[in-house]
Write a structure and sequence with these properties.
- The protein has 11 helices and 8 strands.
- It has about 270 residues and is of the alpha/beta class.
- The chain has a single domain, classed as TIM Barrel (Alpha-Beta Barrel), CATH 3.20.20.
- It has an 8-stranded parallel β-barrel, surrounded by 8 helices.
- The longest helix has 18 residues.
- The radius of gyration is 17 Å and the shape is globular.
- The termini are far apart.
- The relative contact order is 0.14.
- The N terminus is likely disordered.
């Protein structure tokens, strides 16, 4: 089924677990302190396996699940994986789309992202325009996100034809981030790329956080509790880890989540 055919369907939306919306839920939780999201790729972990890992991440304190990552993920795989994960966790399940084929109405919400520093208008606005009617008809909650890829960018930078933001040029990153805010986007996402050797530099995060009035998400290359601590101290509101979790690093994830709890002023679990 093509995206146009899927968009033409007028099926009633699936049951919604966050009556007031996922974005208000996120913003409300952020008043208590920073959050953590676990990114799972259905191409690497689907169905029951993804659900088990999502459940383990949530049990350790991750605040939500992002679902996406690879290019070319088909709708049936996304539907199956989102349905399995939603049945296993009480936290939000949010689509992290790589294109129209990765959309599913089985999630709670969708990061409706624009890759603002792409050289290809498909990633900035054209794909979003082609998908917008499907999103409206699906009942899936769109959360507008300004997505910015920082060097080295890894696969997402390559596929998204990103004009990578230099790690040593915070003023340029601040300009893009503020543009996202002024355009009405509700979140800004700084992405170093899945599997990046290092996360976004804390100095760059600090500069961007210092000019924004909307929450800042940081992902890519976060491998240790020390990485998380530096990014949180620099002003990141939401941290995202994916590769670490998929490779079985649940104990390290627990340490990262410990840093998130510390910045919320919470005691560690007994």
């Amino acid at each position: 089924m093509t995206q146009e055919e899927r968009g033409a369907r007028r099926d009633p939306p699936g049951p919604r677990r966050f009556a007031g919306g996922v974005l208000p839920w996120i913003l409300g939780r952020l008043r208590e302190g920073p959050l953590h999201l676990t990114l799972l790729d259905p191409e690497k972990l689907s169905g029951t396996a993804a659900a088990r890992l999502a459940q383990e991440a949530a049990r350790r304190g991750s605040d939500g699940i992002l679902l996406g990552g690879s290019t070319g993920i088909g709708p049936s795989l996304m539907d199956e994986t989102a349905r399995a994960i939603r049945g296993s966790v009480s936290c939000p399940v949010v689509v992290f789309p790589q294109g129209p084929e990765s959309l599913t109405r089985e999630a709670d919400a969708l990061f409706f992202m624009s890759l603002l520093n792409s050289r290809d208008l498909d990633f900035v606005i054209r794909t979003q325009a082609r998908s917008a009617l499907w999103v409206r008809r699906s009942g899936l909650e769109p959360i507008p996100v300004g997505y910015l890829v920082v060097a080295p960018g890894m696969r997402v930078g390559e596929v998204g034809r990103a004009d990578l933001l230099p790690r040593s040029d915070p003023e340029r990153a601040c300009g893009y981030a503020l543009a996202a805010q002024y355009l009405g986007m509700r979140l800004v996402y700084l992405e170093a790329g899945s599997g990046a050797p290092d996360p976004v530099p804390p100095d760059l995060v600090r500069a961007v956080a210092g000019v924004l009035e909307i929450p800042l998400i940081v992902g890519g290359g976060i491998r240790t509790a020390g990485d998380a601590k530096k990014l949180l101290e620099a002003g990141a509101n939401i941290l995202v880890t994916g590769t670490l979790v998929e490779q079985g690093g649940l104990e390290v994830l627990a340490q990262i989540l410990g840093e998130v709890r510390k910045h919320r002023g919470e005691r560690p679990p007994p």
